[in-house]
Amino acid sequence: MKQFRDSMIALITETSANLPSDVRKAIADAVGQETADSRAGLAMSAITLNIDMAVDNVGPVCQDTGMPTFFVHTPKGVDQLAMKRDIEEAIVEATRTGKLRPNAVDSMSGKNSGNNLGCHVPVIHFEPWDRDEIEVKLILKGGGCENKNIQYSLPAEIPGQGRAARDIDGVRKCIAHAVYQAQGQGCSPGFIGVGVGGDRTSGFELAKKQLLRYVDDTNPDPELAGLEQEMLEKANTLNIGPMGFSGKSTLLGCKIGKSHRVPASFFVSVAYNCWAYRRLGVIIDPAEGSITEWQYRSDDEIKRMAQGEGIPLTGREVVLKAPISEETIRSLKVGDIVIVEGEMHTGRDAFHHYVMHHDLPEDLDISGGIIYHCGPVMLKNDDGEYRVVAAGPTTSIREEPYQADVIEKLGLRAVIGKGGMGPKTLAGLQKHGAVYLNAIGGAAQYYARSVEKVTGVDFLEEMGVPEAMWHLQVKAFPAIVTMDANGNSLHQQVDEESFAILEKIGKE
């Protein structure tokens, strides 16, 4: 199959940059549910604009391309070892050209391989079938939504739902809680795959396989079909909304599968996927390795998604340019839209851990500055300088153990991320005069266009591309204040309100 490697490069590129037809329709329907000038409406506007930009730039819809996971069906006699080698070569090439972010990190040393190859990476599931052609499906599921996967062992007490037994009502309670707990940290509005039964491992695999179904299909099991529709409707009453800003669009798809289990166990496994629902499939000619058919594409696909200008500039926004004064920060309140100009610095998990134990280099004073929770996709130009390929925010809650201390140590005035942070950070913002700014999760192209120049990088060799501290010069970078220096948090408010609704659902 001489063309198989190139076919896999095409599959990876399209999956990273071009959302499937059914996902596009679901997102377009969600846009119509939100008021255009609300926080939810602005988020959806940025999302749809970002989808178009990714296609135009042939760049990642979201900078976090996750752990590439392939599901391959092959007829008898196909050389699966050769296919595995070709897939790995395609992964390396797609990483080199910036279609994938280098995400393979050694779990013990923390070293990034730099090419997306490593122990058990990429993930490839081979299964035989009785058809003559080869089928390859690929899903790119980012770490933020992967972290919101959740598994329940029934019977159990489910927060906000009460006792969940080993029956359909128990499954119902698990699904409701799974959507609630994702909040904006999973880049809502999202999609969920649910696996009922199996063991701990096969249950999660079954859940993830449900994400390979079409958004608008109907479950062949009438009982599960009814539950899918019921939970989709109930989830959208939680008022979590896009990015956790509150709103009517929280869940865009619910797919449930079941498998047999042993008598001792009853697992309900939920795979949460963000709005950037990147999965495509191809049918391959087993002789040449060429693509004969694309899956998840339709002739009536919505080609252009943008419904608005993202977060439009009205002239009433507050401009933040480092170094920022405490007075300016104290004047901001939840809901304000800010525009960042000038210098900002990326900093994620490895950076925060480092700062807790070391000082920054003497020539790196970022007091009064801005840290951006972002693991960008970067490429080096011929002149040796780096350029940003994709640069949306990562989920901030992972930095909750460190953030308040890092704000104090570095003298920060603003933290940009997605999904919000917890009580320790909120107290730190109030004490030290800083704010949390929520950028639109997954909008990697939308924010990449705001970066005028990469002015430098620290810790690249030690931490790898996603975790390095990149120094960026930005222009017209929009975000929304969701945690202010006066003790107010939109995320806390939405969480409390949605939990109250969750409790009502549990009593129905």
TrEMBL record:
Enzyme Commission numbers on file: 4.2.1.2
Catalytic activity entry: (S)-malate = fumarate + H2O
Domain of life the protein comes from: Bacteria
Residues covered by the Fe-S hydro-lyase tartrate dehydratase beta-type catalytic domain: 311-493
Gene Ontology MF terms: 4 iron, 4 sulfur cluster binding; fumarate hydratase activity; metal ion binding
Listed cofactors: [4Fe-4S] cluster
Residues in Fe-S hydro-lyase tartrate dehydratase alpha-type catalytic domain copies: 8-280
BP terms from Gene Ontology: generation of precursor metabolites and energy
Gene3D superfamilies to which the protein is assigned, alphabetical: Fe-S hydro-lyase, tartrate dehydratase beta-type, catalytic domain
Family membership: Belongs to the class-I fumarase family.
Subunit structure as annotated in this protein's UniProt entry: Homodimer.
Protein name: Fumarate hydratase class I
Organism: Chlorobaculum parvum (strain DSM 263 / NCIMB 8327)
